[in-house]
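Supplementary Text 2. Reproducibility record for the structural model of the 363-residue chain.

All settings were left at their defaults, and a single model was retained for analysis rather than an ensemble. We include the record here because the model underlies the residue-level annotations in Supplementary Table 4.
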Amino acid sequence: MLVSQEKIKVAVAMSGGVDSSVAASLMVEQGYSVIGVMLRLWSQACEDGNRCCTPDAVAQARRVAGRLKIPFYVLDAQALFYREVVQYFLEEHRRGRTPNPCMMCNSRVRWGFLLQQAQALGAEFLVTGHYARVQIGSDGKYRLMQAVDLQKDQSYVLSGLGQAQLAHTLWPLGDWYKTDVREKARELGLEVADKPDSQDLCFVDENSQGVFLRQQLPDVTRPGPIVDEQGRVLGEHEGLAFYTIGQRKGLRVAAARPLYVLEKDIEQGILRVGFAEALGRTEFWAGPMEWVAGEPPAETFDAQVKIRYKAKAVAARVMVTEDGWARVILQAPVRDCTPGQFAVFYDGINVLGRGQIAWEKEV
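Retained model, structure tokens:
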């Protein structure tokens, strides 16, 4: 989206990483009045805190802001993050579903609290280092679009944003390739030029995740039986919260052919497994639906759907119901269709909306 930058104030969400640092640099170069902001997020008690705002990350972001001669603020969002992201994460596990905390963080924390705080500081736009694009269509509505660099495209995790958020969002890296972003960082002399991308959960480290889940969710982290499709007991699982649909590794069950997780029965504490061919699904429900335009394109329409961030898009027929759900019929079966994950619908490069996956519509 092209914006006349004269005297426009923007707040750049800075993480201490290469993407947000280059985004801030580009805004300064283009003449915007720039402030840097960073969120302090909740984490399970550990040495460095939340991975998105470790002391080192704060220091790096502050150094970049100093180099760019822009003000820098750290905003406390720990209580909000715990309520909107961590509790969601735990509740989804409690229900036997597979959560995606980044989806909740983006829509409820970054484009909720952070956008509001940015506006309170006088900023007209929130700027982030995400790889996505926003443009105004011929109908006057804002469109959320995939990035030019499809390998880094993050439109999937931004799919919960609507018109009110997109109207105040700028993504300067949407037309860039990641290799060019790193090169730009080197040209600017930024020490974060070769910093690795962040991965995994930000609020609990990988080595402590099992302990955290056992402390918070004793009911779904107890061992129980692993059974096949005929109900025969094959072994014992470590706790249903540690498995997801389609998982193969970690079952510790001997079989002539590889076994995969087919279902988690929370009521009975059973993990059902089977062969790969039992995983394919050609139909599921998604909801409640959130539409980028505020409404679906039609009651029934064709689209491409991604069932996970890195999943390949699959052609589908989408039928929207009056209660805000969508029945999705796929042209080809997908293996890892997992309740709790998000189905994101595309019309070419345009994001239409999203809804959480369910095998049956919830009342």
